[in-house]
Amino acid sequence: MCINTERPKPVVKVKPDQPVFRGETVTLTCDIQGGGNIQWTYSWFKDRKTHNPDRTTTTAEFSFRADVSDSGKYSCRGERSDSQRSDISAAVTLTVSDLPTSTLIVTPNNPVFTGETVNLTCVIKPYSNWRYEWYKGSRSSVKLQMSERYTVKGNTLSIVGAVTSDQDQYWCRGLRDRRPNSSQSSSAVSLTVIRLKPKPELASDTAGAALTGNTVNLTCGMDPSTGYWDFYWYKHSLNPEREKTETNSYRLKIDSVSDGGHYWCRAGRGKPVYYTNYSDALWVNVTESPKAVLTVRPDERVFRGERVTLRCDIKWGGNTEWTYRWEREGTNNQYTNTVLQTSTQELNISSVDHFHSGKYTCTGQIKTQSSQRSDAVTLTVSDEAQAAVQVSPQPWLTEGESVTLICEVSGSSTGWTFSWFRDHDRLSDSSRGAGGSYTLSPAALQHTGVYTCRAERGRPAYYTRHSSTQPLWVTGVSSSVSLVINPSRGQHFSSDSLCLSCEDQSNSAGWAVRRYTDKDTKTCSNQTGSACVIESLSTSDTGVYWCQSESGEKRHPRNITVHDGEVILVSSVDPVIEGETLTLHCLHRSTNSSILSADFYKNGSLVQNQTTGEMSITTVSKSHEGFYYCKTERGQSLHSWISVRAPQISSLLVIGLSVGLSFILLFLISLVLLWRHKNNKDQHRNTQQTSVPTQSGESHTDNSPLQPGSDHIYDDVTPMHKRDKG
User: Which stretches are tagged as biased composition: Basic and acidic residues (predicted)?
Assistant: First the structure.
């Protein structure tokens, strides 16, 4: 006989199929193969805890209502009445899941208003083919049935025209034919129904008048707790033409004054749209925007290192507090480079440089409103300023004449004041040059010198560089000191010798020859006493020479020109006196004599063509003054300035005029004395005359005519020359 010693092994079966949902009945079966009809008891183990059965049953089936906590690995073992045991079965995993979750969504958000349509949407995931149920109330829930007020479309139940009695709690759930057969009930949602229709409040971000060219932001205020709304905007009237926004703000662009007026708003939501009441009308006042005016001090053309002030002026009524936005032109002619924003209307650049150059604009701002942008002003920054000096009519003059020095700043003419210097010393009367000119009238000998000017402007002051030098040469009408030139002419050939000496009618000691060449004043390099000798002239010796005393007095300046060419111009006299004869000679270097044929020019124009090599003007006048030169086939001379003076009045003529005037004065005095004497005689005679009685006893008061033989009242007047002879 063979005995089977293997123990039977059970198998655990689960019903229903996986997955299992909470609340469902689960049946576990412990099937022992080959167990026969023997009575078994069954031990159940969870999560492999085989030493301690979870429970013991006398039947092979074990049922329970599933919960999520029942999830785990299950196994079983059988035991016979004779204490024989089977093996432990393989573990079977049981997974218990929650039922699908239901979520109730109410639109619009709480609260709602009477008359609105309220949508209750039941959302269940992830399964489909649900039948939805909606319930009202928390304790004694009422299932909502379709009616005129309750309509269902898909997973949404709509309450049409909400009333205050609809205020309550609502929840939903889902049912279906397949597992899972139901969902969890949703959480309850409270619905609040308000009787009064809401009214929004319309507001503007602009206090006071809005300016054209700006925008005004309108806000349609609703209580945030009322949820989401669309907003509708109305201009000038409550007509159907409106604009809709999803937010409660509306940007109103002010293009013209006509954009001002009344505005309204209201909110709406849902389908069909539920509208709130209209807001109160808001008046938007629009005025023309003022235009900013940008000015630059001291000028639009400035120099490195100057202080520049940009000023933004806006003509606007009231005491409006403006702030100012300053911009400089960026790329593509767009004003993208904001320089600064200030609370004052001036922008100061303490020390301007090249990178400050550009086109500037300014704009005034009042909170959210802006003025019109100013016209662009171009700021040009140049290198250091340079003063330049000119003389009018010319630098050579005779004492008593007038001359004007003119100082200008290259590239700029605004806001400058000027200072003048003579021989490096600032002139005390520089204030006369505040307008850029310095006039000497009448010119005197002490005005001879080398002049420069300098300009300044701004606070702190910005100074230009000194101008180039401008000499003024004032010659005396009659001077005791003379500069004697040998050879006596203004133009000289190079390599020739030249002697200059100062001769004083009283004493030549203390006088020295000075010269001005190449913008510099020097003493003659070869000075002996009051004489200067230049052995070999060169063009660098060209200049003005004069006599100067130890105290600085300057006398008799003369222009000396040294020419490398073959031809020079020689004047017979210098200076020329009006009415005299002037002869100009054209000399050649080799012969040192007049050239046979020469053309003579004045101020660049041909005046004479002479075959004798000389030109004569018999009666010189002031109109003959100017620059002269001659031109021959051998070359051209340099230019010489020919000055013309008025003739001097001789001393004898002056004495004669004085004596004549004295006699005239004495004669006038005699006539006055004679008239006074006659007047006194008449008065005396009238007082001495008495009335002559007539035979009738009457007297005549009338004056009697002169009778023959009467004394004549003029008999006492004797001419002075007759008295002298007597």
Answer: 712-726
